[in-house]
Write a structure and sequence with these properties.
Order of helices and strands: EEHEEHHEHEHEHEH
Number of helices: 7
Number of strands: 8
Helix content: 40-55%
């Protein structure tokens, strides 16, 4: 685990020795929110991942991915930041090319073996909702994320963020393809635009 200056774990470690895979890694959500959040969670002793993999269409490296987010992180110690960057790998990927998911899985398995990762995985889809079904199908086919029973010794989870479709009909289509691939306890849905609209309406009352 990274040791961060002036910060002590306040709660038990929730996620240990796992792999975190971020789709849409070159986007604004990852740069402004996800990487800073991961840094703060690690500093707070809440998670201790073995590997963080970014995947998106742009040609980048793990170091470049981190440096894009650096302005949104208050770094107290250069050695901590250096160790944080060592957790990262990056894979250039076209969401519409299934073979890219197979090569991503090859990279993930190689890095997990080298780092002694547990095989537990969390995938975060920071992409447009129009890609959710395509990504879900490719993740299941390539076995990057496997259907897991609640009693399995290793877990695989997947988080869907951004507008969950553009209307009820499209949301139902997305939900159907997700549930076809994974168990409900593996799925987390976040619609930050729905929350934003709700809060805005409350503020006008």
């Amino acid at each position: 685990m990274l040791n961060c200056t002036k910060q002590k774990p306040e709660r038990c470690l929730l996620v240990n020795n796992c792999t975190i895979i971020i789709f849409g890694a070159s986007g604004d959500l990852t740069r402004r929110k996800l990487i800073p959040a991961l840094y703060n969670l690690i500093c707070g002793g809440r998670i201790s991942p073995a590997l963080i993999v970014g995947a998106s269409f742009d040609a980048l490296t793990g170091d470049e991915l981190c440096e894009r987010a650096r302005e949104f992180i208050k770094v107290a110690d250069e050695s901590v930041w250096s160790n944080f960057k060592k957790l990262f790998a990056y894979h250039k990927l076209d969401f519409n090319k299934y073979e890219d998911f197979e090569s991503l899985h090859t990279l993930v398995k190689r890095e997990e073996a080298e780092r002694g990762a547990s095989g537990q995985r969390m995938v975060y889809t920071a992409t447009a909702a129009s890609f959710f079904c395509t990504i879900t199908d490719a993740l299941a086919r390539s076995r990057i994320v496997e259907r897991k029973d609640e009693h399995d010794t290793t877990w695989h989870r997947i988080v869907y963020e951004k507008p969950f479709g553009k209307d009820l009909e499209s949301a139902l289509v997305i939900n159907a393809c997700i549930k076809k691939a994974f168990e409900e306890h593996q799925i987390y849905r976040i619609d930050h635009y729905l929350t934003k609209e709700l809060v805005s309406n409350i503020s006008l009352i």
